Amino acid sequence: MSSSSDFSGPGRELRQPRQTRHFPISRVVVAAPQLVWMMTIVLGMGMHRGSASSDTSSYLPLAWYDGIFIHVGPLLPLIPLGTRAMASFLSGASNMAKDVSASRAGLVYAFAAIIRLSVYFAAGLFGDHAMSDHIFLGSCVFSSAHAEAVAGLAMLARMCVIKSTVFATVSAALVVLQSFCLMGLQCGDSWFTAIYFHTPAETMIALVLGLLACQAITIGMVIIPAASALELAVIALRESRDSRLG
Questions:
Q1: Which end is more exposed in the chain, N or C (fewer Cβ atoms within 10 Å of the end residue's Cβ)?
Q2: What is the reported pTM?
């Protein structure tokens, strides 16, 4: 004999446990770009060709970006960050998910910059060539761009769910595009730097210090929370699609 909880009658719907799926997307978006960054630098170290001449940079494909990076490198992540702040303002729903707001991310980047400058000062006590300052700064720029890429993807997915305005959605897409472009340019520039301009030892020290001093902060305080928000947004997007199809 079945119990009363096994059937449905008038006014009662049979409730079945809702099956949930685990989406490893949050782990992928956290780990994959960082692995690409580290492998790029390691490959550059493996292709090291000794000290470059003063004219080497003139024929490198990313010499134009290197010139920008030398002068305003620490400010480059502000481009996607500012675009994300604008997208959040245009959507009018900046607090609709548990992702990292643009203002809080900016504070994290500023804190990482203070740590970076402190490491610069400490490394200077051991000489000008204790490490590759180019690679070290590059790790900070790359991790900030990585964070904005994940946060931008989370924002874009949410906007698709709530059917946000065209301007807000396009702005969120621009955040993703800008961030991925910056990540790619930084990987390429640092790859050439590891090949031509610093010894493998200097590059490795910068890679490790960048991971511990800058990337770890950004990963823990921005990238991981943004990845969790992205995973929730993807689930909501799939459920919205399934409800329309069903």
A1: N
A2: 0.84
